[in-house]
Amino acid sequence: MNDNYNIMTNKEIAKQFQLLAQLMELHGENSYKIRSYSNAYRNLRSADKELQDLSTLQLKEIKGVGDAIAGKIKELTDNGKMRILEEFKSKTPKGIVELLGIKGLGIKKLKMLWDDLGIETPGELQYACHENRLIELKGFGKKTQENIQKQLTFFFSNRDKFRYASLETAAEDLVLDIQDCLGIEQVVLTGAMRRLMPIVEQIDILIGSKDIEALWQDDILTLDRQEYDVYHAKTTEDNFPVRLFTCTADLFGYALLETTGNAVFVQDLMKNYLPPSLLDNAPESLKGLNESQLFEKAQLPYIPAERRDTVGILEKAKNGQLKDAIQQKDFQGVLHLHSNWSDGSSSIEALAKEAMNLGYTYMGITDHSKSAFYAGGLKEDRVLAQHQEIDALNQKLAPFKIFKGIESDILYDGSLDYAPEILAQFDFIIASVHAHLKMDEEKATSRLLTAIANPYTTILGHPTGRLLLSREGYPIDHKKIIDACAWHGVCIELNANPHRLDIDYQWIEYCMKKGVKIAINPDAHHPDGLKDVRYGVNVAQKAGLEAEYCLNLLTVDDFASLISNKTQKWNIEK
Questions:
Q1: This prediction's pTM
Q2: Which of 117, 120, 451, 483 could form a disulfide with 93 if both were Cys (CB 3.0 to 4.6 A apart)?
């Protein structure tokens, strides 16, 4: 036996045979072998002796275990691996193997999702559920989709990293619970969540109190103590990791600055901007100062927490280059909405009424185009029929305005999937990649550049196609893409769906430098999805997006003027 290999339990060994049977079925292998390995799983997990300690002859005494299976058990117990299993794993995407653990998703259903929808990761499946793509597949339906969504939520809650949106409610509730429990107000979110990072590893909370020793005696803080003032909670009830920081009440301002981070920002601020005398006399000199006063001591304007990840932000603040970012309350329009004409769950009218309730004066319907057959994409005759419905709704809901858009698929050669005479029927077009995502940088960039050069493209949708924590975006030359959008008068989408947040906030400053407007779009498939705009606003504020570069701040008339002049402007520039 390999001494470096940890002993495997019967259940662990049995699980390897279960996985082998599942992968073989997924790949359409011999049904007799599949049944044999499935039976081995059931028999081995209930064996009354430790398989690790049995000889080949003893193993063959177990029901259903012959020479072949006994040999594979010995492979596992001696080496920790089974050659045939490793072969099947090597030709199966890692995400598919992960999906085998999703309850309610049998092999036949998983194979259908893989073959018909191209789904290869849990994140892609979750997003497909979000877009109602499963309910049209044979053997699925609404209830099955809902069950899969619940299982996927549980799956993602156990990962080491989290999307900001998945922790937000739990974090806010926990702050309130601690405030109520301790009876103090100095309890706030800090760390990456306070900086509105799209991806975080835990919930960080800072607690300030006049009597720290008393906090240690409270039930809520009976946690694993790691340092003098840092505690690590195991999890919340929803299995979200939590880290608690404590400080004396008079040092709360400094502690908030330090724990908010990031580390590079804090170090730069203390080393190069705060007066040495202030830090030399710490902590006495820091007592009673809030964050704003600390920035005053550094002779800097206050830098919002979300801006502190921007490279060079302190120098910009020093030089008076720190401008106000956009505010969601100023938004006029909302774009990129899917109705039940394609894969949305609601009517256009229901989406419009929700947009009106949220204070918008216009919206843009952008159902999927004909190439997205899996999402009920609109063929030419349905495009014209939908436009008739929108015309009627515009009369009914005036002065609220619904613009006729489409999310047109960017084909592999970069062309859009309608003829020019159909594209000309739309008020505006979001051009997006949805298929053939496995591209190198040269191909992906070329494909997008061709789509951007199309005179009918108004907005480049989710430029990299990423799904946070689930699918890495295809690589693109961001500068070339942004430069091309500037030349052709194309806006770039900041897809506000918390699974995407694409374009990445770190490229927004370059967009502004080139004069490219950003459209913060919810990519909503139901009325509640319109509220996802705020996640896009979070990262736009993080990037310092200014009002003149945000498409959503245009009035209905200004937006109408921009999209009507787009083609003419493109022709003149060419």
A1: 0.77
A2: 120
